[in-house]
Design a protein that fits this description.
The structure holds two protein chains of two kinds. Chain A is an alpha+beta fold. In chain A, 31% of the residues lie in helices and 18% in strands. Chain A has eight helices and ten strands. Chain A has a four-stranded mixed beta sheet with strand order 8-1-10-9. A two-stranded antiparallel ribbon of chain A has the order 2-3. The longest helix of chain A has 23 residues. Chain A starts with a strand and ends in a 9-residue tail after the last helix. Chain B is 69% helix and 3% strand. The termini of chain B are far apart. The chains are: A alpha+beta, B mainly alpha. Chains A and B meet through helix 3, helix 7 and helix 8 of A and helix 3, helix 7 and helix 9 of B. The structure holds protoporphyrin IX containing FE (2 copies) and iron/sulfur cluster (SF4) (3 copies).
Chain lengths: 266, 227
């Protein structure tokens, strides 16, 4: 099956947050009210009951003055998901069309996935002791529907479809934007981390949207997963085997020398 | 076949460990093993059979945390309540010298049951000195990294990510040492008598003199300072 992706075109987004509401509604997530921080952003980041947020970012550009950007932020559904690698419960799987999904019956809330994710997207939900994130609405997609957020979007900033086709759309759009006042417009998600099953059209460089320009799985996590986890544990059976050998040889040697009772030597 | 060297009450015995040392040693042994088996259920990537013993993974996680807190308390009791013994222990470790190096070089033979001549040892022999440095250090790292993994939200993300490999490395090193250590302190015919030192508090006087000559002489023998 072809990869199915959400394309988000920031140049068409009005930050109405319809997607945020639609996501809450479809996933039956309770409202989470965070204190006002002097910014239009509703939540600091994704959280256990909020799979997607619109981020609001301000920065000052020496040429263009104050710039105000927003971005729909949620799981990127990586081709090669770090969250899936670290999960000790194999609770995270990938559908054949590219959604990275979780089985909450298996999840134990260890939060390894939160810290392995290059974007720190999965978040802890205390009341059930699990870690949650966007599902790419896989139940809807498998019924032939669009994700709730894409369906709601009134401006066409969010579209859902085959990744190959959306990639062409995105490339055309970036060309257009570059020629029309956004010289730094770019695609995000095409190559990052070997490819994301989530595409962005950005009007400026990714860092202006608080996205890492070259996202990477943190070094501590690869060291842990690729070196320590698979190989280091073998020291334990070595110690057990050594003790077992000694248990036998000490008794054989003691029998030979005829001193079983003393338990000492010399 | 004989498992542990028989306890002999009718021969002269000398004290090796006070009550608090013994109590905390067995306290951290039980909690360490509980943490180990509940932790291995995750380390071995979803070992359902192991988790089943503790009533599934949520049960195992709970046992891991209860045992972790109990172990922290036990270690704290030892450090605070047995401070003098702790200092004496550290001082003994710092006496690491030539005799300890010779001990460690000859140890593989002793371990397998060959008869080797070992120079006089202090209260803790070369191998025990090594164990006394490595295992408690690993346990301290386990405790520190463990609490960071338990409450990641209050620590910087980089530290949480570092805690994962540290917890596993310390777990493997400590367990490697504990496997050998637990065996030597029980079933090994040469050193097994030390088990009674940790269980009842005393060891056979002749064993003490033979295995820890320097300590024996300084504490009970000719060179005892008459305390
Ligand atoms: C104060 C002491 C400790 C604390 C607070 C602690 C805490 C934790 C936490 C929070 C986890 C994450 C998994 C979960 O949520 O259940 C964990 C995993 C683990 N712990 Fe501990 N722990 C402690 C001591 C130990 C000890 C003594 C051992 C072994 C000797 C151990 C071995 C493990 C292992 C093997 C894992 C699994 C790591 C993996 O998935 O690769 N822990 N511990
Ligand atoms: C598995 C069962 C265990 C047995 C049978 C055992 C036995 C013993 C014995 C007999 C001693 C006294 C040695 C002497 O006379 O000097 C001792 C000391 C000690 N034990 Fe254990 N122990 C066990 C588990 C553990 C565990 C799990 C730890 C720590 C995580 C530990 C840490 C120590 C330390 C640090 C010492 C002092 C240094 C040394 O003598 O090596 N033990 N143990
Ligand atoms: S963005 Fe993070 S949570 Fe989503 S698939 Fe990638 S690693 Fe997993
Ligand atoms: S929190 Fe849940 S999904 Fe995430 S790594 Fe742990 S068990 Fe897996
Ligand atoms: S795809 Fe579904 S779960 Fe993900 S943000 Fe959109 S509505 Fe929410």
């Amino acid at each position: 099956m072809a990869r199915m992706t959400n394309l988000y075109d920031v140049s068409k987004c009005t930050a109405c947050r319809g997607c945020q509401v639609a996501c809450k509604d479809w996933n039956q997530l309770p409202a989470v009210i965070e204190p006002f921080t002097g910014n239009y952003q509703t939540h600091e980041s994704t959280n256990g009951d909020t799979y997607t947020i619109i981020k609001f970012m301000e920065h000052e550009d020496p040429v263009d003055g104050i710039q105000w950007n927003f971005l729909k932020f949620n799981c990127m559904h990586c081709f090669d998901p770090a969250c899936m690698d670290v999960c000790p419960q194999e609770a995270i799987t990938q559908t054949e069309w590219g959604a990275v999904i979780k089985d909450y019956d298996k999840c134990i809330g260890c939060q390894y996935c939160t810290y392995a994710c290059p974007f720190e997207i999965p978040k802890y939900r205390k009341r059930e002791d699990i870690v949650t994130k966007c599902t790419l609405c896989y139940e809807r997609v498998e019924e032939g529907l669009e994700p709730a957020c894409a369906r709601t979007c009134p401006t066409g900033a969010l579209t859902f479809g085959e990744r190959d086709q959306l990639l062409q759309v995105a490339e055309e759009r970036v060309k257009f934007l570059r020629a029309n006042g956004f010289p730094r417009a770019t695609i995000y998600g095409k190559l990052e981390l070997g490819g994301l099953n989530k595409l962005f059209v950005l009007t400026d460089t990714p860092d202006k949207f608080e996205l890492p320009i070259d996202p990477k799985v943190p070094g501590q996590i690869t060291f842990w997963q690729d070196w320590i986890q698979p190989y280091f544990g073998w020291l334990i059976p070595v110690a057990l085997a050594g003790s077992a050998v000694s248990f036998v040889t000490t008794r054989i040697l003691a029998n030979k020398n005829g001193d079983h009772t003393e338990g000492g030597h010399e | 076949m004989q498992w542990i060297p028989e306890y002999k009450g009718d021969v002269p015995r000398v004290e090796r460990f006070n009550f608090l040392s013994r109590f905390t040693h067995w306290g951290h042994t039980v909690t360490f093993l509980l943490c180990l088996f509940t932790g291995l259920a995750l380390f071995l990537d979803s070992a359902d059979w192991l988790a089943a013993i503790f009533g599934g993974f949520h049960g195992a996680g709970l046992v891991h945390r209860i045992a972790a807190v109990a172990m922290t308390i036990v270690v704290a009791i030892f450090v605070v309540g047995n401070f003098k013994v702790l200092i004496a222990w550290i001082k003994d470790i710092l006496r690491f010298g030539l005799n300890d190096i010779i001990f460690i070089m000859k140890f593989p033979f002793e371990f397998l049951g060959f008869k080797v001549k070992i120079p006089p040892q202090t209260k803790f022999n070369g191998g025990e000195k090594g164990n006394s440095m490595l295992t408690p250090t690993a346990v301290i790292f386990l405790i520190l990294s463990g609490y960071i993994m338990w409450f990641p939200a209050i620590f910087p993300a980089g530290l949480v990510r570092l805690a994962y490999p540290i917890h596993d490395i310390s777990m493997v090193l400590a367990t490697f040492m504990v496997c050998m250590h637990g065996y030597l302190g029980s079933f090994h015919p040469g050193s097994g008598e030390s088990f009674w030192g940790m269980w009842k508090g005393t060891v056979r006087e002749d064993w003490a003199e033979h295995h820890h000559k320097t300590w024996y002489d300084e504490t009970y023998g000719d060179k005892a300072s008459g305390e």
